Amino acid sequence: MLDSTPMTSAEEQGLRASQAAPDLGSGSDLEGAEIAIKDLPALPEPHRCEQLGESLLGCTVVLLLIGLFVGLTHGVAVGAPPYGAEMAALVLIYAEMVVALLSLGGLLFGDPGVVKRSPETCYPIPRMVLVKLRAGEPLHNLGNISQDEHTYCIRCLVWRPEVRIRQTIEYVYRIQIVRRLQ
Hints:
Number of domains: 2
Radius of gyration: 24 Å
Largest sheet: 3 strands, antiparallel
């Protein structure tokens, strides 16, 4: 389960840095400090086939919609009498197509904002998480722990800064992932 090997200097530095930061761990006063990062449960493997399927479906929908809207606009603009508005419509629809393709590329290839495990992001471990880790119990029945503009992710065992705009979307996404792992 958890061994008692000494921590590395990076982990010790992270603990010192987290002691200077406000206590995020439910008043635990760094109770989780003695658990080394390497002793935390392994991160679950991502579902690559599921991710690929979702990406392919999203690309298909976006490309079909682009084809539909560009085709309709182009068909109407070419068949209409020349008033000058058809050229503006074509320029606008092609500009929208470029924006849609760039957005799709950003979603597919952009940084998803993964928070890596490090002493700065893992410590302090909240009391209820620490108790379950020490007992060897699963964490999936716990919810993420929010405190002081940070959220402790029970799946990744890291503190994440709260982003209020994306908070609901990320919560739903995490719940879906946790349910898949059960």
